[in-house]
Amino acid sequence: MLKSVLIWPIVSITLFLALATTPASPSDSPASATLSLEERVVIASQLYSGIQMYFGHWKGVPNLDLDKEYARYIQQAIASDSRRDFDLASMEFLATLQNGHSGFGDKWLRDEFGQMIGFYAYPIEGDWAVTKSSIAELPVGEIIAAINDEPFEAFYQSNRKCLSASDERWRRRAFFEETYLFPPSFTVTLKSGRKVSVTRKGAFQWPGEEFQSIQSSQRDGVAILRIPAFAPSVFEDSAVEFLKTLGPVKALILDLRGNHGGSTPSNLVAALMDRPYRWMAESTPATIAVLRAWDIGSSHTELAWGSDPQQPSHPLYSGVLYILVDGGCFSACEDLVVPFKDNHRALILGERTGGSTGQPYSHSFDNGMGFSVSTKREYFPDGSPFEGIGVAPDIEVRTSAADLRAGNDPVLAKALDLIAKTAADASFGVPSELVTSANYQRPTTNDLLSEENIH
Fold first, then answer.
1. CA 190, CA 129: separation in Å to the nearest integer?
2. Which entry of 207, 247, 310, 384 is 20 to 30 Å from 171 by CA?
């Protein structure tokens, strides 16, 4: 594997945040908006050429026949001048790449059809469970059985083709974020048989936009820092400032659940690292025209490099660290977690992360449309696969629908329980004056993963 002279974390952008924001024409309406044949062909052609030029994940789709998929896409694009139909066909085409950082978007579609649903759900233990809700009749923990009398799983399957994802787990989790795939009004049938009418309203929001700041608290001498996103940069900046003023604590819990990323939080990583650490290994397409002309080797040649260890530099916090993650920790959130997983600086609890990060190439069109294509494929520092897999926690703790209904947080409870059980141990959770002692040795992740602590 080639190594670069300088390795530094590259910006990892949450999908579509960098796509076009140019307003659509005021004359466009949901019922009548159209695109000329020329517009459709030009945009479709640029999507096709952009994939060939920039896509860095051919290993993830070894059986993809891009020309065949493009031909099918062109047939769809030519068949109708409807802007909405073209948007959905374009989303479907980019979704064939099976990559969470490659996809198509249209501001017009979001503005006209992206009103908020009012609740959020994803599969838990095989059922579609409500995990967030502003609708009183749909409290968290309820199980969705049907939408407009159609089994909800069947409704999902009919829209699945439009969802860009690196694996099925993320595709299902992100479904409710694509609000324009849902009817403007619909009836939800719950597992109990109760029916709830839902009318979508309110402007489209990117995941995490509802949060304005980080949230900090202390419980029994344990600091808890909840970071909902890494875009905009104020979230990372605020977290670093929090660490600057953090006094003596038993431990710090960094809660990254549901954090969809933004920009790689390299400053926050540095503020928490007290030992050498590595970023992900990477690869990117390296097209050599003459080799392709001679048909020598693979048609998708790659340039790959690893990460040289970075040395810690004046960390702001060197105490015991826990990181809470789930399937909603995605992109730049995973960029943060990987170095801590690799060098065991922190104990990671929760569920496996989303499994997609990278540097997208983004292109915007004058009409408000745009697309992103991920230009590099990430690997764990040891070279093992990451994309479509994610980061496994050191201790897996799942949240059930029953937990949601009861308002329980078993992941946070497990972290606090581990800290409480070891708080009296001279090797963990001790007062700060003892930590400075020459005889003190802070425990490793292996110490905390002992049979006694886990069970």
1. 10
2. 384
